[in-house]
Amino acid sequence: MSATIIDGNAIGKQVRAELRAEVADMRSRGIVPGLTVVLVGEDPASQVYVRMKGKAADELGMKSDTLRLPADTTEADLLALVDRLNADRAVHGILIQLPLPKHINSQKVLFRMSPDKDVDGFHPVSVGRLVIGDRTGFRPCTPAGVQELILRSGVDPRGQHLVVVGRSLIVGRPVANIFLQDAPGANATVTVCHTKTRDLTAITRQGDILVVAAGRPEVVTGDQIKPGAVVIDVGVNRVEDKTTEKGYRLVGDVKFSEAVEVASLITPVPGGVGPMTIALLMKNTVQAARQLSA
Ligand code: NAP
User: What residue ranges define each of the domains in the chain, with the CATH number in brackets?
Assistant: First the structure.
């Protein structure tokens, strides 16, 4: 039997529609959620991401600013800019697009940001707030998007065994922390796997919900999935494909053609987790505006 496909584009659109209504309501009370994205240098992929973020904010009626700084911007100048943005009452969310040029200490810059404007959720205070279950903190956008996909597909993680493949600070660990919470939409029993995990298959096959964020193309195969599991594939990998116009195609970290025959619900790549990340960035910015204006 073939799994039902979780449509990330449709769910992302639903989230954005709800946010548009919330932004309209805030605007009627004189609050315009403001997101400032800082881009240092000319990395082509970063330029695309920054454009997408600005466009998404504009479409929701938010105020968006993109500050483009030259690649030779000094660390001191960038820190001074962060200080100014921290103090600017019209700026509710700050996003420093990574990677930064090598001469700048990214951690120093991220840590300088006010945790109350850290809409990417990577500041240690945001990490701490997530771990202790403080909902005023911002959750990293991709993991928060994974939770939205699961809940809006009608799956209640409560009491289920959720297995995460990957322990990165960006995806694996926050996914684990989100679903471990004693809160609605969570309460799963969580296991986190990584490259040193012994007998990975024995563990992934226990997952009622399997979230894969390994960063390796199609590394999780059908035989590693529990029949009837919910499979969320966070991976995005380019693999060579001479039959396509671009010479490559995108695949996830899960071998979709096999997994779709075993799972009950599964996200495709592209069109699964991907569209959720920007939607959740917008959600975090609206949350920041709400909290800073309270
Ligand atoms: P990462 O920093 O490279 O981390 C990968 C994690 O997977 C590591 O913890 C690694 O273990 C583990 N791992 C790798 N191969 C494994 C294997 N064979 N068995 C078990 N564990 C394995 O990657 P990431 O930043 O978390 O990203 C993961 C994927 O998600 C990437 O494909 C990335 O492109 C994608 N992603 C997508 C979005 C989106 O918006 N859709 C956003 C962010 C990331 P060790 O710790 O032991 O090395």
Answer: 30-115 (3.40.50.10860), 141-274 (3.40.50.720)
Cβ pair 248, 240 in contact under 8 A: yes
Does the annotation count 196 as an active-site position? no
Residue 214 Cβ contacting ligand 1 at under 6 Å: yes
Predicted confidence (pLDDT) per residue in 56-70, tens digit: 999 999 999 999 999
Query: Do 200 and 166 touch, CB atoms closer than 8 A?
Result: no
CB atoms within 10 A of CB 211: 30
Cβ distance 271 to 9 under 8 Å?
A: yes
* Atom number of ligand 1 nearest to Cα 272: 41
Closest residue by Cα to atom 11, ligand 1, is 194
Please tell me whether the overall predicted TM-score, pTM, comes out greater than 0.70 for this model: yes
**Residue 153 burial (CB count, 10 A):** 17
